[in-house]
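Recap quiz, item 2
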Amino acid sequence: MERTHAVENGYICSLVEKVKEGDRAPFREIIRLYQKKVFVLAYSYFRNREDAMDIVQETFLRLHEKINMFEKGKNFQSWLLQIAKNLCIDYYRKNYSRRRELESEKSVEELNLASGNPADSHRSSDLKAIFSTCIQKLAEKQRMIFVMKHYNGLQYNEIAQTLSISVGTVKSLHFKAVQNLKGLVSPYLGIQK
Amino acid sequence: MKKCKEFQKNLVASLSGELKKDEEKLLLSHLETCASCRKELDELKRLLQGSDSFQEEIDTALASVDWNALPDQISEYVFKEEQRQRAKSWLTGIISWLSQPKLRPVFAGILFGLLLGSVATYLILKPPHLELANGETYFASKDFLERVELEMARRETLDYLEKSQYLLLDFVQSPSREKVSNESIFASQQAKNLLSKKKYLNPELDKFQMAKAKEICDQIEILFLELSQISTQLSKEEIKRIQNLIQEKQLLLKIKLVKKELEGSEV
């Protein structure tokens, strides 16, 4: 697994070197390799396809602008996702602050799940909505770590590199994120708080 | 032995496949003996399975994008944007270079120089009547005014003498005839005009020291008085007498000399 990752990173580094020389084809190849990962991160963050597409586009634009700053040997994926994460945070603060204020006024119970037995609710088609709403309610870093871990499939060390924090902090924040999420969705999954 | 709380912290990492082997072993042995931690593990499993439902939403969103076309679209957008930024940065580079603080004294100096130059140009080239526009009177020295008047008198006299010279030349050169010709009548008319001009010139000639000019002008005046009488009453002998008078008094020569003198004494 480690070996495969090293080869992949080596391949990416060679593509990056070509992009630095002004080659367009390797840049398209990098986009092809990472576009979905950036999209998933952005979509998990905003739950909006168009916003996620904007983030994908802006991420690769920023990548091309900063490509000369990438140092050989560094984890390219972490570096790229760091760019995407920063863009998500900026975008969110710019466009979602007001929206979030309004949404936070709306409780999870308002999602048509409060009625009836909550234990049956997990079968509801709104389960997706519950999870995404609850994920949105997490603190910024916890949300980012949860999304990166569960939807981007990143390992703790990759998340740590992307967020520039220690692996121990990632582990701790991941635990907090899961606990908070458990607290929010437990009535609908038949879990005791 | 670790407390349950410590083990529960490792449960999330264990479910995410992030626990080291020795930690995993410890956790498993604890779970065999702790019902509370097993319950917690079950709940966390259900929670994380439930979170997979969001994965379905993500997959639906992923399926709605044409991932094959996107790299080309993004690449095109990036290179276009880069070109635009490059053009913009070239312009902003010049602007930022010009607006750097160390150049400010230079701009201030240029601005001050321009202002000073404009004021100086205005003061030098401003039309004199601008001062009179406010109803102020124009003051000139007495000496200056006298010089202006003298110059005007000199020019008037020169003009008078020149016209007189031509008239007398015409009259002297015209042959004696039995009858008074049209030319003589024209000369008579001219003489009358010049006489009226002389009346205007008299105070000027008296005022300024132009004795020679005055003398010759007086002699010309007498002649013109006679010339102005030219008509059918004036006989051929009388015309001949006036012509002789002009030649005797060398009037034309004198006019020439006075003219030269006046021309030389330009104020």
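Chain A touches chain B through 47 residues (CB under 8 Å).
The domain at 1-99 of chain A is CATH 1.10.1740.10 (Rna Polymerase Sigma Factor; Chain: A).
End of item.
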